[in-house]
Amino acid sequence: MVKRWISGRFPCVAASLGLLIAGWLSLPVAAQVATGTSTKITTIKQVLTGDTVVLQDGTIVRLIGILAPPSGPAAEQARERVRQLVLGKSVEVWLENQNLDLGHRDKYGRQLSYIYLLPSRKLLNAEILRDGDAYYFSQHFIDVRTKNILLAAEYQARKARLGVWAQATESPEAIAKREGRVYEEPAFMPPEKEEAPADGGYSEAASGMATTGREISGSALGPSVSGVPTAPLAPELDPKATYSDIRVESCAVLDVPTLGLVSLIGVQNSTAKAGEAARLETVKLVQGKRLRFEYDPVNAARGHRDREGRLLVYAFLPDGALLNLQIVARGIADVDIDYDYKYKMEMVTARDNARIRELGPRWRSDIPRTVSLDRVRASLVRLMNEQFGRAGARIELVGDAQDILRIMHDSIDEPTAGQLYRALSISEGGNLPLLRSSGIREIQFTDTRATKIFRFPL
Q: Residues in domain TNase-like (predicted)?
């Protein structure tokens, strides 16, 4: 017997689902994003690349969350389309709060920003992705809601094979990940051919850029917009060096001789009533042991430091086990999902297991053992609203024990199925434990004819 959650059976919910899905991608993006701080309303006087523009006051802005082709016909096409979108028009510039400790600058000194087109209030970053003129770029700090909007815009372009997706099937980041390496953003170099400014008053010398095509340092563009002093350079870590006499400040912060305070990548600090219990559990893991430390290349742009200036590290126990992962797997602390890092998926999976088993001070008695499927379905509705551009989704329980959750839509393919599963695993702190607690043992994604079924066992 199959229980279905579709139009004819639940008219009110189905009508709401149809309205949400149909209206999602047509809404002004600004109405869906509330992050960071608005800094100014201004105009753009020059477009340097498909992801880098110059404001009226000469500030060079790197658009958060997108990566335009660095060279070739696709790069020129992206640059020209962005020019058509922005030159001579008013825009509002927003900063992302998570970039505060970076001074809101990337490693080339460009200001990291979201830009909204006025008066439409559409998010330029998303519009560029929607036109297929850039790839989604995960190495920037982006809040989860905005990340979903950018991914949905990229998905539209991929399905329609627009711009870069006319020939590409993977982004440069995805290719690097498949090959087991960290993607390095191309060095920022201004185009050789100077573009005529919209107001006739701009020159590359005025903006602080050299015309020789060399990289721009942060100091060449002036002080940080936030006034945050530059953090000291991170010391090099010997991959063979180990450290002893380590003091545990909290479940996420260690005091290491010669290194000072270090913050464990991906581990959320616990300052609530469970904080001291979490610290003591971490002490048991660390006490009397020599640890080895590594950086994650994804944090290079921020000098491998957090907002408090502590080094961001992975810590390895003498047996080679990753301490960051052990802390999460034992339910000592939650996992940080706000940005991508090397061991994120392993830590999210470990968090899910600890949560459903109610392990450690973080999850003990934290969630009920049985959760209404209506709650799970509500989360799925929200995810599908963000992924699909039109209605037609159907959710049903199948199997003799009604323990398989099948999600059907004619737009589902293998990449989309994986993307939906990953989104489900992190939304609202992780919905996979809720599914397991409801008795679901497998999630299936399939098209409406069930010609291909993509299975994700729980």
A: 38-167
Strand, coil or helix: 400? coil
Q: Please confirm whether the linkage preceding 28 is cis (ω < 30° from 0).
A: no
CA distances for 44 relative to 68, 117, 212, 315, angstroms: 18, 10, 23, 44
CB half-sphere exposure, 18, CA atoms < 13 A: 11
CATH class of 33-185: mainly beta
The domain spans of the chain are 3-24+369-457, 33-185, 247-363
Q: Looking only at Cα atoms, what is the longest distance across the chain?
A: 72
Least confident of 47-51, 239-243, 266-270, 365-369: 365-369
Same fold, 33-185 and 247-363: yes
From residue 380, alpha-carbon distances to 23, 371, 376, 443, 445 in Å are 17, 14, 6, 11, 12
In the numeric block, the tokens 């737009």 are attached to 411
Tokens of 38: 């608005």
Compute the distance between CA of residue 191 and CA of residue 204 in angstroms, rounded to an integer. Answer: 10
pLDDT tens for each residue of 55-85: 988 889 999 999 999 888 888 889 999 999 9
Residue type, 116: Y
d(Cα 188, Cα 432) in Å, to the nearest integer?
Answer: 40
Q: Residue 281's pLDDT is what?
A: 93
pTM: 0.42
Alpha helices in 198-339 (DSSP H): 275-286, 323-329
Report the topology of domain 247-363: OB fold (Dihydrolipoamide Acetyltransferase, E2P) (2.40.50)
Confidence of residue 372 (pLDDT cuts 50, 70, 90): low
pLDDT, one tens digit per residue, over 443-457 is: 888 887 778 888 887
